[in-house]
Amino acid sequence: MRSSLRRARRTRPAAAGLVSALLLTGCSNVWEGAGGEPAATPIQDVFLQPLGAHGPDPFTASTVRNTAPPAAPDRPPGEDAQQVREVSGSAPGLYGGTRAIGSCDVERQVALLTGDRTKARAFAEASGIPETNLADWLHGLTPVALRADTRVTDHGYREGRANAFQAVLQTGTAVLVDQYGSPRVRCACGNPLRSPAADRGGVHQGDQWDGFDPDRVITVRPAGSVVPGLVIVNTTDRSWIERRTGTDGDEDRTPDVPPTCDPDTCALSGTGTPDPTAPDRGAASDPASPAPVSPDPARPAPPTPLPDVPDPSGTGADPTAPLPPAPDPYTEPAPDPYTDPGTVPDPFAEPPSEPPTVPDGTPPTDELFPAGPLPDQPEAFQG
């Protein structure tokens, strides 16, 4: 009986704390997760994170630079509403920014996090990186701004720990993304970000902003390979910018091959554009790899060309394979004496008594006597 009362006394304050935490918005959280992952709960409510809200329980002060936030892309009229959709982190137009200006002050973010060892350890644990590599990891992130309301796993800082919770970040939120195009830091409060929980349910908590539609919230799917540069939309003139991964905007340039779609709807309609890092992208336009020619149905395909050297084995081996070794010369028949003059005499001819004195190496004739008298020999047969 005493143990039951003790258990009830311990549960009441925890339940009261949970109820009070549900009423908070901003960068606060409710659930504690090990290793930065959200703890398993029956229902995970989703907290709305307005564009510039600092909120309670932040990791750091804001490091957002005063840049024009990108507006949400226009939606085609009559577009079917869809539930949370995935967009590849390398899709052009997923993020926006101002040319030559990063949306976050990365150097200040590094200083704020590394200046507190306890906070740095909690941030690294929530981000899944070694604490000793925190500064280098932050320098490798890219500052951009969201162009759609995006669902993530956010983390607040309380009592020396990172506490995970589900959140939706408003369009225009300044974030730092990694080399796979995934949001990893919210610059308004320095909170680490991870991919959202698999369960997409939950009740939205907090004040909704104008234009918020839960059916048009997206999630970012990490690209299948490292993205060397992000193609983002310039917030000032709706042009395309290529921002190299890990740079602060100082190396921004116009893409060599701009996307063919409109910047306002390129990546955020349907279920997202295909990953441009796929192996088959641009293969048809490669001059070194001409497109295959369709066979003519009225003309049969030409036979495969025969090799220059016939296959000695007669087995139809690959003509490009190395040739077999040359046969043993001692196993071949003797050369033909009529095709190789002066090498081997005719075995059936009678040997002459004296070597013939025929000029120019002309072989001896088959006649027993010459046709006419020779000037240098006596006429011994006359009479």
Structure description:
The protein has 383 residues and is of the alpha/beta class. The protein is built from four helices and 13 strands. The protein has helices at residues 2-22, 106-114, 117-127, 134-139; strands spanning 46-49, 85-88, 95-97, 142-146, 150-158, 161-169, 174-177, 183-186, 191-192, 204-205, 218-221, 229-234, 240-244. The strands form three sheets. A seven-stranded mixed beta sheet has the order 9-8-7-4-3-12-13. A four-stranded mixed beta sheet has the order 5-6-1-10. The protein has a two-stranded parallel sheet with strand order 2-11. Strand 8 and strand 9 form a beta hairpin. It is globular and about 115 Å long. The chain starts with a helix and ends in a 139-residue tail after the last strand. Residues 1-26, 28-40 and 270-309 have low confidence and may be disordered.
Low-confidence stretches: 1-26, 28-40, 270-309
Strand order of the largest sheet: 9-8-7-4-3-12-13
Structural class, by secondary structure, is alpha/beta
Oligomer: single chain
- Characterize the largest beta sheet: strand count, sense, and whether it forms a barrel: 7 strands, mixed
Tell me roughly what share of residues is in helical segments.
10-25%
Summed over residues and divided by their number, the pLDDT gives a mean of: 73
Number of extended strands: 13
Give the terminus-to-terminus CA distance: 162 Å
